[in-house]
């Protein structure tokens, strides 16, 4: 089942095919075609025109994005701070309980 299968070679390695003869063909001249007229290159990028309203919208949307991202980051930082403070309080309480239990014995 897990044995590799060795492919069989249908033709021997020392067998070479005879060379193929290629006969030259006659070249017939065709009618002369004039070169195409040069075409003016199309602009690669369309021009962007900013109106005052568009600029104001861009500034407003950028400000909104910055405020939203800032609020998310601050809330994440606050969540980490609250979690670490509660873990510190739990550690102090557990330490106090263990210390008081060891003192009683």
Report the strand count: 0
| Helicity range | 40-55%
Please write the string of helix (H) and strand (E) elements: H
Biggest β-sheet, characterized?
none
> What do the pLDDT scores average to?
83
Structural class: mainly alpha
Which outline best applies? flat
What's the number of helices?
1
Proportion of residues in extended strands? under 5%
First CA to last CA: what distance? 69 Å
Low-confidence stretches: none
Q: Work out the radius of gyration.
A: 41 Å
How would you describe what is shown here?
It is a single chain. The protein is an all-alpha fold and 105 residues long. 50% of the residues lie in helices and 0% in strands. It is built from 1 helix and no strands. The longest helix has 53 residues, at 52-104. The protein is flat, with a radius of gyration of 41 Å. The mean pLDDT is 83.
Write the layout of secondary structure elements.
Blueprint: H1 52-104
Key phrases:
1 helix; single chain; mainly alpha; 105 residues
């Amino acid at each position: 089942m897990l044995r590799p299968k060795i492919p069989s070679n249908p033709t021997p390695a020392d067998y070479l095919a005879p060379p193929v003869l290629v006969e030259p063909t006659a070249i017939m001249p065709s009618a002369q075609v004039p070169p195409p007229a040069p075409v003016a290159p199309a602009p690669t990028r369309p021009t962007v025109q900013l109106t005052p309203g568009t600029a104001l919208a861009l500034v407003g949307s950028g400000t909104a994005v910055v405020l939203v991202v800032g609020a998310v980051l601050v809330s994440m930082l606050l969540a980490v701070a609250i979690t670490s403070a509660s873990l510190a309080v739990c550690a102090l309480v557990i330490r106090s309980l263990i210390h008081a239990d060891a003192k009683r014995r």
